[in-house]
Amino acid sequence: MGIFKKFGFGLKKTREGLDQKLEDVLGAYEEINADLYDDLEEALIMADVGVQTAVDVVEELRKRVKSGDVRNPKHAKLIIADIIAGMLDGGEDMGLITIPSVILMIGVNGVGKTTTIGKLAARYKAEGKKVLIGAADTFRAAAIEQLEVWADRAGVELIKQKEGSDPAAVVYDTIQAGIARNSDIIIIDTAGRLHNKKNLMDELAKIYRVVDKELPYADREIFLVLDATTGQNAVSQAKEFMQVAELTGIVLTKLDGTARGGVVLAIKNELKLPIKYIGVGEQIDDLQPFDQKVFAKALFENTAETHAEEA
Fold first, then answer.
1. 40-61, pLDDT tens digit by residue?
2. How many domains in the chain?
3. Rounded distance, CA 162 to CA 168, Å?
4. Which domain holds residue 44?
5. Do residues 34 and 130 both lie within one domain?
6. Burial class for 289, CB neighbours closer than 10 Å (0-12, 13-18, 19+)
7. Residue 132 and residue 24 in one domain
């Protein structure tokens, strides 16, 4: 299945929810006026794009409608689609060039972090890269065993210690193994216990120091894994993690199971964090690099087709 089909399938619930909300509003008006803008803002908020993002979208719509002398409400949706595509632009490139490069994965229980690591490892291996995983989330029950299952599925090696071990020690062992084995990508699973920010901050700081000392010139990404089905709670969670971790990007999972995919806009527009990957299915190849143009096209697929037919 091609990337557009995967995005289209994965965003089906979000697209239908957003499209219906916009159609309900735009279909109720014969011309664009102040009440229409208010209703559009409310519809976008209900689609989980976030309050600030909804306000920003509608404000930009006002400007474009005024400058372009647009009067037909039906045309407003095409403008909204273009505005959203522009908001999503930038920051998706990985830029992992050094050998090895390091990816640190953070996320609370239940968001799909372990699954994401396995899928990410499989993706890089399929690209011909040698991948090594480090099981540094040593405090969560069964975390190491679950990660081992995914490492086997992906066909990559795993470095682990016993449950309760020092995470920084696991990171050290993983890096040494990665150097010795000439690994291209080292993916490290880290804890995400937000209920104790001080411990989490201290633990991450130790891990950073190990990476800085052992691989001072290595390219590094720090990904926060979020569950799209939680909607605006995912944004709140990201804000919390931004206080304790130097995040470089977001991996948004379970998009195919929710109508709350609008949260992508809130994360990108309000938090200024790039979306690096999105999960659009259960299969091992259903973790896709985020492409803002493909995402926007899939989100408004029917809008573009309808407008072309009317033109």
1. 888 888 877 888 888 998 999 8
2. 2
3. 13
4. 3-90+297-310
5. no
6. middle
7. no
